[in-house]
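Revision sheet: structure tokens.
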Amino acid sequence: MRVPLGGLGVGAAVLSGCGVRREPNTHGRTVVRVWSMWTGDEEKVFQGVVDYYNRIQDKVYLQNLGAVSDDKILRAVTAGAPPKVPQPLLDQLSPDGGKLLLPFGSRQYQRLTRITKRGARLRAKTFGECMFVPLVGKYGWKSEELEG
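Predicted:
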């Protein structure tokens, strides 16, 4: 299973140890993919967290999907709340049941939401109220929207 992560937080740390797909070219390490096109500088911060963790166990490999990737993703998680669901992320979900889990709603109030893609259809299911840190960047909140 491929588990790309957007945002930075406990979710990333937890998922890195959950038996994510291991690939031969990474010497058995967990592959964690990030979309730099919508996580922005968070990728660099997350790389620092991964580097620190790897000094002890060397089990996590961070791969940047970048803006152009033909990979279709089966599962995706974001630990930051975007103002709307990033279209590039929906485009990269597999049409064969790809799932995205994210906190979705206003700046102050979100619902944990799972979006499932079947063909061109998207189906959303909510799992209760929550409040996450804002996702900031190209597909996140603008700095001026967070002030005040």
